[in-house]
Amino acid sequence: MFGKRFAWLLTLVLVLATILSACKPAEKLATVINLNLGTEPPTLDPQLATDTTSVQCDELLFLGLTDFDEKTMEVIPELATEWSVSDDGLTWTFKLRKDVYWVHWDPATAKAEKKRLVNAYDVEYAVKRCLDPATASDYAYVLYIIKNGLQVNTGEITDLNEVGVKAVDEWTVQFTLEKPAGYFPGIAGMWVCRPTPKEVHDQFGDKWTEPGNIWTNGPYCLDTWEHENKMVMKKNPFYYGAKDVTIETINWAMVVEESTAFAMYEAGELDVCGVPSADLDRVRADATLSKELYIAPILCTYYYGFNTTKPPFDNPKVRQAFSLAIDRQRLIDTVLKGGQKPAKTFACPGIFGSPAEDPNFPDIIFDPAKAKALLAEAGYPDGKGLPDITLMFNTSEGHKRIAEFIQSSWKENLGVEVKLANQEWAVYLKTVHGPDTPQIYRLGWCADYPDENNWVLEVFHPTLGSNDPKWSGPAAEEFARLTEEAAATSDPAKRKELYFKAEKILCVDEAVIAPIYYYTRVVCTKPYVERGYAPLGGEHIDRWKVKAH
Amino acid sequence: MARYIARRLLWMIPVLFFISVITFGLAHALPGGPFDREKPLPAEVIANLEKYYGLDKPVYQQYIDYVGRIVTRFDFGPSYRARGRTVNDIFRDHLPISAQLGLLALALSVGIGVPLGIVAALKQNTFWDYLGMAVAIFGVSVPNIVMGPLLIWIFALKLGWFPVAGWGTPSQMVMPAMALGLSNSALIARLTRASMLQVIREDYIRTARAKGLTERAVMIRHALKNAFIPVATILGPLFAVLVTGTFVVEQIFAIPGMGKYFITSITNRDYPVVVGAILLYAVFLVLANLAVDITYAFLDPRIRYT
């Protein structure tokens, strides 16, 4: 009897022990994270945002119809559950979630209040508001692809109802485009299209984004905004994914000075921080900090442009020679030191349609011999006979160091003396974008949405882009044709093929620009933070976790 | 005295008018505009922005509108960089912070500088003199841009006594006030020493001593007041500089003061902020100089204003 009972008891104990050992104790998580915005966001209004800081805030406060997958950069649903396009590629229909609320956070009581459901009329209102010339939105131009977007924004059409956006019913919004655009779901997810509440604009005007006034619909609410000092965001309890959001408070500092921010990180006042380039060697040598260091790509390219109307850069061979004579890897290793990648295309990896990682795309390999030969073919053997050449950049220690490296590369590899000149930022922009673009100038480009259209067409198209190189002629026309055709094509494979050709003309055959490097960001993160890296900016901190520490 | 003060205050009107005209004209004459971006905006978008801010009007009209708004509504206009923010918002939010920090730094400067200068003068050519002046030379020679990070390294990272940066708690005020105050205290110490050395050799000091006054009474009642006149002279502009914000210290310690607006508004071509910030500085400078002149009368009974 006793033996039977004992056997039962033993079995029970063993079963229980097995079950208990299989269950891991619940992971203990902290609910607060301390981050640095880097600067005061100029606005929190999605229709007015233009900069990465404002966009970062908007990403947490407002939902877009679509979003981008952080790893694949593919368009994924967010506020919209699904979308479809008509056969002619002109009408896009988005179906909306029915569980997203406008939420008002009262900083005085620290309480969130549900106002109403976010609906398709809010999306329609936001798009029209962005295109309304009275709003004076910087980014209105990205919506010119929508029917009558340009005409309304210029005042040619005064009736906002003529804009090609319409709420078909409460949960369906339809866009009519000027021409087919395979990249439109990406545009629809941009901050400018994010719904904003009309009643709050009407009540508070420009002050609608201040704490206590603002309604939001994203994973966070705005609790505090002390201008130029700090911002606090609190978890939105009515967010549809609230149960998965473990960070309940985001404390944003607004520290501009990189070295100060990094000192705050070292003192434990920040949990994540960019590493100043001056500290990189020290961080790499430090046993603790080196483990917290991570270099992540971001969707930006640094390039030198050539004014194709100014001798000697009116000759493609000279431009090719100058591009081939830059040792990009050595520049990265000795000057930049931030793990950047040498660039061979204008659009960086991660941009849809970019051939940056296509092995078939011709590399702009550092080739001094070929560069010299090309220069001789152009009629300037050993650089003899070249007119005075000036490379211009905006006043900055970093740009100066890059320019000096490249200046010495050209001297060493081509025997060419290049003068350096710099101008204060606003003056420089006027010079570069004006009629008298310097022979060689430096600029960068970052993605607004991860598609080649945002790069090649919007920047270098001879008439639709800003075209700082003043590029014209048959090659430019072919480039224009390719980029326009790619924009209007829905077939992804076909689009890739067209962009491959366009990039080859731009960077290799015509060498209108010399792409220099693809940007990275160098970040230290405390080991207790589990995070992602959004290449496009706008981190999803709602998906991060902070382990108890 | 009251008439003198009233007259000086009335003089501010033409002075500020002149400054506003010059600043407004110069700001608009600079190449580059407030809406020039690395990603250039289409002409139609720039046109909308210019219309929104009234920049599509001729410059003289913009100036008339600007002054009109100030005179009728005390409205210094919008900031072009931050939508929805006005220059008045900037003054309201950031000036008190700069003023708080500036006054703290000024108190520190005077509190350290004056005693250091007096001791150095009274103990001329002794160890105390040399020590005081060595400290002063160090303070003057080390710029804020070095002093700030040095203080962060010592007091925040090594000793952990104060937070690295930010604003809002008393502990966050200590290091920026030190960074601002120490270099100025060195300047004041040197000036006080030189002035004291000159004054204590004056005849009236010898007379005071001959009358049998104690050395303490001679120094405090007679020497110090006169020796303070040159110090008071520099305290005026120093006050204006410190309370309207200092870019470097505010940048290093991430202080939400006015200092950055003096610099960044020019690079951003944020015209209303440029003009507003300069007018603000001018007002402080004029008022501080007036205060200095009034202080002269108190320090030296021979000075009278009518």
Describe what this molecule looks like in 3D:
The complex is a heterodimer of chains A (549) and B (306). Chain A is of the alpha+beta class. Chain A has helices at 2-22, 52-61, 120-131, 149-154, 184-188, 198-204, 258-266, 280-285, 287-292, 316-324, 328-336, 368-377, 397-414, 425-433, 456-460, 474-488, 492-509; strands at residues 29-30, 32-36, 66-68, 75-77, 80-85, 91-96, 101-106, 111-117, 165-169, 172-176, 215-216, 220-226, 230-235, 249-253, 272-274, 293-306, 341-342, 390-394, 419-423, 440-446, 513-525, 529-530, 545-547. In chain A, strands 15, 16, 17, 18, 19, 20 and 21 form a seven-stranded mixed sheet that branches. Chain A has a four-stranded mixed sheet with strand order 2-14-13-12, with no helix packed on it. A four-stranded antiparallel sheet of chain A has the order 5-6-10-9, covered by helices on one side. Chain B has 306 residues and is mostly helical. In chain B, helix 4 packs across helix 7, helix 6 (144-158) packs across helix 7 and helix 7 (170-199) crosses helix 9. The interface between A and B is large, with 53 and 49 residues.
